């Protein structure tokens, strides 16, 4: 079955040149629950200190903690909705220097910040944008730090390709 061709206007997204290099951007906060810690880890990282509160109580952490992958996913969601969705992002390219600095527990409120560190041309119609990002808990203590390289379309719309 084929669909009739329907031409849609591209969303009005900003080019890489409009990303404010050097500015820290607040991307919102998120409260972590015990149910989601267990649900995420049961599907993606089923280690006992993520999925079993009784066993986790006897771990080095003294209780249930979120998977690092879960924590990174919370960062991504907050960064995407708080900053990335305004820009014409083509794709993520690399995550480097990801550091899990302290455990994330049920009830923690994580706040995301992103600082655009650099942007440089990366071929026709694209820029390589590097951000430094992180999450802090409700006590202002860092729980995650990372750097992300992404390709973002540049103002040169004539060079766009599919």
Automatic annotation (TrEMBL):
SUPFAM superfamilies: Thioesterase/thiol ester dehydrase-isomerase. Residues 21-118 form the MaoC-like domain. InterPro entries: HotDog_dom_sf (IPR029069), MaoC-like_dom (IPR002539), MCH/BMMD (IPR052342). Pfam families: MaoC_dehydratas (PF01575). Belongs to the enoyl-CoA hydratase/isomerase family. This is Dehydratase.
